[in-house]
UniProtKB/TrEMBL annotation:
Key word Nucleus present: yes
Family: Belongs to the GINS3/PSF3 family.
PANTHER family linked: DNA REPLICATION COMPLEX GINS PROTEIN PSF3
UniProt-recorded name of the protein: DNA replication complex GINS protein PSF3
UniProt domain DNA replication complex GINS protein PSF3 N-terminal: residue ranges: 5-57
Gene Ontology BP term (one): mitotic DNA replication initiation
């Protein structure tokens, strides 16, 4: 659970989602760069996730009114990226897709019921986590051919790398401290 002031959550919620308007909305033209104009039905605009989800939940004034917008998968989770992850998750630069890729995936899975994408994200994390652990315990690999892979880690993977890299050092220091005190 993230706090209200969690910078990573704020950055994730600011990720752009393609949204298609289904009704004319007066006064929102500034979203398209036309201040004061009306956003017309059928207009597609990339909106921050927080705004897109709020508009997607909104309906017109009547109970039978159409939804204001529909959301689509953001670019980092569209089919070409999912296909690349299925082919070989270790070759995809997740940071270039979205710095908070897994957080974005988690939020999107709350909005869309797509078990195939969810399975791909879980499998991707599982495969990449073992590769991250290998690089964390083998510094030579991290400096050589693994450097490119490590540059493409998203924020949660970077935290995993740091924990895997520093964990053994902390255990060693702890055991040495125990030996000193005995």
């Amino acid at each position: 659970m993230s706090s209200y002031y969690d910078v990573d959550a704020i950055l994730t919620d600011s990720q752009k989602l393609p949204c298609t308007f289904h009704i004319d909305v007066p006064g929102l033209g500034y979203l398209e760069g036309n201040a004061g104009d009306t956003v017309k039905s059928g207009t597609k605009i990339d909106l921050p996730m927080w705004l897109g989800t709020m508009l997607a939940m909104a309906t017109g004034n009547n109970s039978g009114s159409p939804e204001v917008v529909t959301l689509e998968f953001p670019a980092p989770l569209q089919q070409r990226v999912i296909n690349a992850l299925r082919a070989d998750p270790k070759t995809v630069d997740l940071r270039a897709q979205a710095p908070h890729f897994y957080a974005l995936g988690s939020k999107i899975m709350e909005l869309f019921d797509d078990p195939d994408v969810l399975d791909t994200l879980v499998d991707t994390y599982r495969q990449r986590a073992s590769e991250i652990a290998d690089h964390a315990h083998n510094p030579r690999g991290a400096l050589g051919e693994g450097a490119e892979f490590l540059r493409g880690l998203d924020e949660s993977e970077r935290q995993l790398f740091k924990a895997a890299h520093e964990g053994p050092k902390a255990v060693k220091a702890w055991t040495q401290d125990l030996k000193k005190n005995d």
